[in-house]
Design brief:
The protein is mainly α and 80 residues long. The chain has 4 helices and no strands. It has one domain. It is a multi-pass membrane protein.
Length: 80
């Protein structure tokens, strides 16, 4: 179980990084520096953005749950 949680933690960490980078930039930050400001008018529907938000939140919840469970495993020495 401990190894499975570690694997899930690595996978959710990579997915969260990917999903966060896929989000559309809201301001004039780094996203507009690389042409994101020009594409914001041409971007697709908001349904895709809403689904991406939901997937990101679910992935973040799984990530936090894995961290808490791994902490409990180490605190109570259940990893053996």
């Amino acid at each position: 179980m401990y190894l499975a949680l570690q694997i899930i933690l690595v996978i959710t960490s990579l997915l969260m990084g990917l999903f966060i980078l896929l989000h559309k930039g809201k301001g004039g930050g780094l996203s507009s520096l690389f042409g994101g400001g020009m594409q914001s008018n041409l971007s697709g529907s908001t349904v895709v953005e809403k689904n991406l938000d939901r997937i990101t939140v679910i992935t973040a919840i799984l990530w936090v749950a894995c961290i808490i469970l791994l902490g409990l495993f180490q605190a109570f020495d259940w990893a053996a």
